[in-house]
Amino acid sequence: MQTKYIITTGGVISGLGKGIVSSSIGRLLQAAGFKVTIVKIDPYINVDAGTMNPFEHGEVFVLDDGGECDMDLGNYERFLNINLSRNNNITTGKAYKAVIDKERKGEYLGKTVQIIPHVTREIRDQIHKAAKGFDICIVELGGTVGDIESMPFLEAVRHLHLTEGDKNVAFLHVTLVPVLSVVGEQKTKPTQHSVQRLQEAGIQPDFIVARSESRLHKKTQEKIANFCNVQAENVISDPDCKSLYEVPLLLQKEGLDRKLMKKFGLKRKKAVNLSAWRKIVKRMIKPKKTVKIAMAGKYTALSDSYVSILEAFKHAGAVNNCEVEIEWIETTDFETDKKKVKILDKVDGLLVPGGFGSRGAEGKITAINYARKNKLPFLGLCYGFQMAAVGFARKACNLKGANSVEIEKNAKHPIICILPDQYEGINMGATMRLGSCPCKIEKGTLAHKIYGDTLIHERHRHRYELNPEYIEVLEKNGLKFSGKAPKSPIMEILELPKHPFFIATQGHPEFKSRVESPAPLFVHFVKACLDKKA
Ligand code: GLN
C-alpha cells in the first residue's frame, strides 16, 4: 500500500507531550495491523544530539545503529517496541549539511542553491527514506508553530501534502486549552492563534488534539471546530492522566485511530487488542507495593536527563507489581562529609547511571562501596560500571591511586582507560563506542540468570573501558566479569558473587526497555530491592 503520513505539529507552548501523542497514535495503528514508523524533526542546527548537554536538552538517546538522537525516539521505541535508526531523526543541521555537501560536490551545478526548493526537497527526501517500506509514517515536528527555525520544515510538509495527496497525508495539531481559574472557563484563543499560524504556512489541520486539565466541554470543542475550520468530531480531548502510558487508551476512546483510518480510506488489518497493554497500565497506576531506589545522578535538577532509566523503572515496576520511588542523591555531598553516605540506609537499592567528567565521581565510588559492604542491591550503568571497578580496586585489592583516566589522566592504577588500538584520533562528535554491541555471558552467573542467554546485545555510548591488565587482580579478589565482548578484551558486565545483588554493565540497558518488553536487568534489580525490603 502507499505510505500514509501523519504530521504532528505543536502549538501554544512546548512540552505538551507531542511525542507521547505521536507514539500513542503509532501504537494504536500498529495494533490495527499496520507497519508503523515515526520520524522526529528537530529544528536545531546540531547535526545530532550527541554533543548536547542533557541538562539543557534532556537525555541523549542511543539507537542500535549508534545514532545519538532526541529523547522522543525513546518514547517511540518504548511505545511501539520497534528499533529505529538514525534516519528517524532529522535536524536542521543534518538537512543543511546534506545540501551543502551536495553543493560542494557540484550536484547543483549552475544553480543558486536555496532553502526553497533545495533544503525543503532534502527534508522531503529524508522523510521518504525513513518511511520506505512502512504503511504509516508519523512525522513529529519539534518546536512550536511560529518558530522561525521550523519554517523550512513546515514548508516541506506542506509540499509533501501537495505531492502525496490529501488522502495520504493527515495533519494533527497538538495544542493547549488552559483554564483561567477566576472564571473556570476553558479558553480556546491560544489554539485559534496557533492554528492561524499553521494556516498562514499553508497547512490546514485535519485534527486538533487539545491538551487540557480535564476533558474538553462540548462547547469548547465546537468553538475550536468553528474557529479552526476543523470538524467538531476531529477536535480530540487529551486531558491530564496519571501515566503517560494511558494516552493510547485515552485516544482510542476518542476514536482517533478510527478517524485517522477513515481519513486515509483504510480498513484495519486485524482486531485491535490492547488488553495486555491495559493490564500493564493498571499495574502502573495502582501498584501493590513500593520500593525506594537511590539514584546517584549528576543532572538531578532535571529528570529529563535520565528519562529512559525512569521509564525502565516504570516497566520493571509493573512486572513486579510495585512502584519505584526515586530518591535523587547528590554524590558531591559524600565528598565533603563521608558520613552522609548513611542516607543509603533508608533506601532499598542504589543505581549509579551513566555520566561524564569528574564531578561527583568520588562520591559515587563512596556510595557504591557502601552498597557493597552493606549488601544493598546495586546496579551500575556505564560510568556506574567504571566507578564500581575503581572502588573495588581501591578497597578490595588495595590498589591505592586506582582511578579512571577520564578523571585522573596519570592515575597510578588506570583501572579504566582508553584501549589505544580502538580509539585513535578521537574527536568529540560521534566517536565513542556507540550503538548495539554483542556480549557473551558466562553460564552460572547472575548475569546469566538475569538474561537467560549466553549472547546478548545492549546499546553503548562510552569512550573508556576496563583496563585488561587489571582483570586478574580484580577477579582474584572476588570480582567476576560475567559478560565480555566476543572479539575484543572489553569487559561488559561485572558482578560480586558474594553479594545478594551487585551488578554493573558497560552498556545502557535502559535504552532497550519497552512497556511490553522491560529490560531484564531492571526487572531483576527491582525484584532484588523488593527482597531486600522484605
Ligand atoms: N564517561 C564514560 C566514558 O566515556 C562513561 C560514559 C557513560 O556513562 N555513558 O566511557
Describe this entry's structure for a reader.
The protein is an alpha/beta fold and 534 residues long. It has two domains: 4-278, Rossmann fold (3-Layer(aba) Sandwich), CATH 3.40.50; 287-533, Rossmann fold, CATH 3.40.50.880. It contains 18 helices and 23 strands. Helix 1 runs parallel beside helix 3, helix 11 packs across helix 12 (307-319) and helix 12 (307-319) packs across helix 18. The protein starts with a strand and ends with a helix.
Nearest-integer average pLDDT: 93
Distance between the termini: 55 Å
Stretches where pLDDT falls below 50 for ≥5 residues?
423-430
Structural class: alpha/beta
Name of the CATH architecture of the largest domain: 3-Layer(aba) Sandwich
CATH superfamily of the largest domain: P-loop containing nucleotide triphosphate hydrolases
Describe this structure in a few short sentences.
By secondary structure, the protein is α/β, with parallel strands linked by helices. 36% of the residues lie in helices and 22% in strands.
List the helices and strands and how they pair.
Blueprint (H helix, E strand, L loop, with lengths): L3 E7 L7 H14 L4 E7 L11 H4 L3 E2 L5 E2 L2 H9 L8 E3 H14 L9 H17 L4 E6 L9 H14 L4 E8 L2 E2 L4 E2 L2 H12 L6 E6 L5 H11 L6 E5 L7 H7 L2 H9 L10 H11 L3 E8 L10 H13 L2 E8 L2 H5 L12 E4 L8 H13 L4 E4 L1 H14 L5 E3 L8 E5 L15 E9 L4 H6 L3 E8 L2 E2 L4 H6 L3 E5 L6 E5 L6 E4 L14 H14 L1
Parallel strand pairs: 1-6, 1-7, 2-5, 2-6, 7-10, 10-11, 12-13, 12-14, 14-15, 15-23, 16-17
Antiparallel strand pairs: 3-4, 8-9, 17-20, 18-19, 18-21, 21-22, 22-23
Helix pairs in contact: 1-3, 1-9, 4-5, 5-6, 11-12, 12-18, 14-15
Bound molecules: glutamine.
The site of glutamine (GLN) has 10 residues, from strand 19.
